[in-house]
# Entry
Amino acid sequence: MNEAHLEENLRLILDLGRVHEVAEGRINGRAAGVLLMPPYRTDIADFVEPGRNVIEVALTPVLHNRLVGYGETGDPRWGQFQNRNGLAPTGLIGPARLLPHWRERI
# Structure
């Protein structure tokens, strides 16, 4: 990101598109927000620096998938989760985009 792009009235929106379930954004190692539901968007302008930037997204899937996995182990403690209707969708489906947004005073 060059310095000319970092105008005071420019906001940068990280739009993750479609996500199953929770996403946590980090920009240059700094926590930039936890996104719990659509729209999976957050303003990252305050975290972006001139030069190279690193965007990381960590996802937390639904508990259902973990429990189904336990059920498939054959352990009787998790038997109630055996042969469920498969796994729930999980992950970052996208498309992930950076959207410029200019704020104007009226």
User: Anything to note?
Assistant: Residues 63-71 form the longest helix (9 residues). The radius of gyration is 19 Å.
